[in-house]
Amino acid sequence: MDEKTQIEDKWRLVWEIVNQGAAGRDLTGANLNGAALVGADLRNAVLRGADLNAAVLSGVDLSGADLRAADLRWADLRGSKLDEKTQIEGKWRLVWEIVNQGAAGRDLRGANLSGAALVLADLRNADLRAADLRAADLGAADLRAADLRGADLRWAYLHEAKLDEKTQIEDKWRLVWEIVNQGAAGRDLRKVDLAGANLTEADLSATVLGGANLRNADLSGAVLRGADLSGANLNGAVLRAAVLSAADLRGAQYNSETKWPDGFDPQKAGCVFVED
Predict the structure, then answer these.
(1) Pairing relationship of beta strands 272-273 and 253-254 according to DSSP bridges
(2) Dihedral sign (CA 98, 99, 105, 110)
(3) Is 171 left (phi over 0), alpha (psi -120 to 50) or beta?
(4) Torsion angle, CA of 103/107/109/110, rounded to 10 degrees?
(5) 20 to 30 A from 230, CA-CA: which of 34, 152, 192, 267?
(6) What average pLDDT does this structure show over 23-28?
(7) Which residues pair with 157 in a beta bridge?
(8) Measured between alpha carbons, how far is 26 from 118 in angstroms, rounded to an integer?
(9) What is the pLDDT of residues 145-203, one digit of tens each?
C-alpha cells in the first residue's frame, strides 16, 4: 500500500500490524474486530479495551501485552503466545490454556466460558458442570465423556462437536447436538423445548415443530421448508436467511425481537404478534 491507497483506517491499521509489527505500540481501544492478525508481533503492545471480537490471533506474540478489558469474544487464540507478563483477564487466560494446552480431565466446574472460541478444544472427560458456555464456539471440540450437567449452552455452536454415550449432558442439549449434526428432516419434535438453541443452518425440512418452544433460538440459515411450526413460540427467535417456503406458521407467536428473512411477512403467514 502507499499514501494513495484508499482504505478505511481500521484496515490500514491491520495492514500495519501484520506487515510492520506493533511491538510496544499503543493500541488502546483499537477496533480490530474480525481482523486476521496471524503471526503478528504484538509484544508489549497496549491493547487495553481493544475490540478483538472474532479476531484471528493464531501465532500472534502477545508476550508482555496489556489486554485488560479487551473484547476477546470468539477470538481465535490457538497458537498465540502469552507469558507471565501478559495482562489479561483470568477468563481469557483460561480460554487460551484450554485451546493451546488442552483440558482433558480438567475441573472446569462453574467456569465462565461464555463467548469463548473453543474450536477443536480437547475437553475429553472434563468436568464442565454448571459452566457458562453461552454462545461459546464448540465447533469440532472433543466432549467425549465430559460432564456438562447444568451447563448453560444457550446459543452454543455445537457443529461437529464430538459427544459419545459417556458424555453427560441434558437431553435438551443432546437433542440440539443431534439436530445440527445429523439433521432432523421429517422428525416429530412437537412441543419440544429448544429455547435458546443454536440451530444455525440446521436441516429441519418437514420437521413437526408444532407448539415447540423456539424462544430466542438462532435459526439463521436453517432449512424449514415444509416444516410444521403452527403454534410455536418464536418470540426473540432469529430466522434471518432461513428457508420458510411451504412452512406452516399458523398461530406461531412472535414479538418485536423476532428477526425474519428479508421480505417475509409473518402476518400473511398466519403468525400472531404478542408483545411481552
Answers:
(1) parallel
(2) positive
(3) alpha
(4) -60
(5) 152
(6) 98
(7) 137
(8) 28
(9) 999 999 999 999 999 999 999 999 999 999 999 999 999 999 999 999 999 999 999 99
Query: CA 131, CA 3: separation in Å to the nearest integer?
Result: 49
Condensed to tens digits (0 to 9), the pLDDT of residues 51-87 reads: 999 999 999 999 999 999 999 999 999 999 999 999 9
**Exposure string (b/e) for 188-197, b if CB count within 10 Å is 16 or more?**
ebeebebbbb
Task: Report pTM.
Answer: 0.96
Q: Compute the chain's Rg from CA coordinates.
A: 21
Q: For residues 227 and 189, what is the distance between their CA atoms, to the nearest angstrom?
A: 11
**Is there a contact between 214 and 237 (Cβ–Cβ < 8 Å)?**
yes
* Measured distance CA(135)–CA(20) in Å, rounded: 34
Under 8 Å CB-to-CB from 261, ≥6 apart: which residues? Answer: 239, 240, 241, 242, 244
Only one residue has cell 406452516, namely 248
What is the distance between the alpha carbons of residues 259 and 146, in angstroms, rounded to a whole number?
A: 34
Residues 6 or more apart whose CB falls under 8 angstroms from that of 141 comprise 118, 119, 120, 121, 122, 123, 161, 162
C-alpha span between 153 and 196 (Å, rounded): 8
Residue 182, Cβ density class (10 Å: 0-12 exposed, 13-18 middle, ≥19 buried):
exposed
Phi, psi of 12 (to 5 degrees): -65, -40
